[in-house]
Amino acid sequence: MTITAAADGSALGNPGPAGWAWVVDDRQWRAGGWPRATNNQGELMAVLDLLRATESRAAEPLLVLCDSQYVINSVTQWMPGWKRRGWRKADGKPVLNRELLEQLDAALAGREVRFQWVKGHAGHPLNEAADDRARAAATAFQAGREPERGPGIAGAGPVPVAEVDLSAPAGPPTLF
Predict the structure, then answer these.
(1) Active-site choice (9, 19, 42, 152)
(2) Predicted TM-score of the model (pTM)
(3) In a domain? residue 85
């Protein structure tokens, strides 16, 4: 059976306090974030954490509902070229969010994962739930408190949140 989940990110300022979340249903979701990151970093992290959280069910296909064309294009179209060019874009500039993208590349290896674009803020229940939780995490970081992390995947046991160092200053957001 296919696992279907929505993944989303949120930043209050870009960069600013940021959150990420993925949602399978009301009982299976997770969220997190950082005091300072970009929306794109949150979007990527939501998918990365979802992949890691579902590793125990890696034999099952995964459908990721995502409102971020950046994430979908990064993992389905642009990544092979970036890797061939040593993680550089076609114009020779370094790829932003490389650490997250490299971890996503490794987490996708050997998995049957499809991405489906959904329009954000258009009433899709899973996307709205992921957006709400990602924004709540960003708001928690803005207020200086820990966000509600969520239960994760049922039956998977505790899965640590991926460690991603975002201490380097974030560059301006880009789609390319």
Answers:
(1) 9
(2) 0.90
(3) yes
Whose structure tokens read 């739930």? 129
Q: Which two tokens stand for residue 164?
A: 């991603």
| Residue 8 among the catalytic residues | yes
Structural domain contains residue 98: yes
43, 49, 150, 152: the catalytic one is 43
What does 1-70 look like in DSSP terms, one character per residue? --EEEEEEEEESSSSEEEEEEEEEETTEEEEEEEEEE-HHHHHHHHHHHHHHHTGGGTTS-EEEEES-HH
**Where residue 100 sits, what CATH number does that domain have?**
3.30.420.10
Instruction: Establish whether 165 is a catalytic residue.
Output: no
Catalytic residue among 26, 86, 91, 121: 121
pLDDT in tens, the chain (176 residues): 999 999 999 999 999 999 999 999 999 999 999 999 999 999 999 999 999 999 999 999 999 999 999 999 999 999 999 999 999 999 999 999 999 999 999 999 999 999 999 998 888 999 999 999 999 999 999 999 999 999 999 877 666 665 566 655 444 444 43
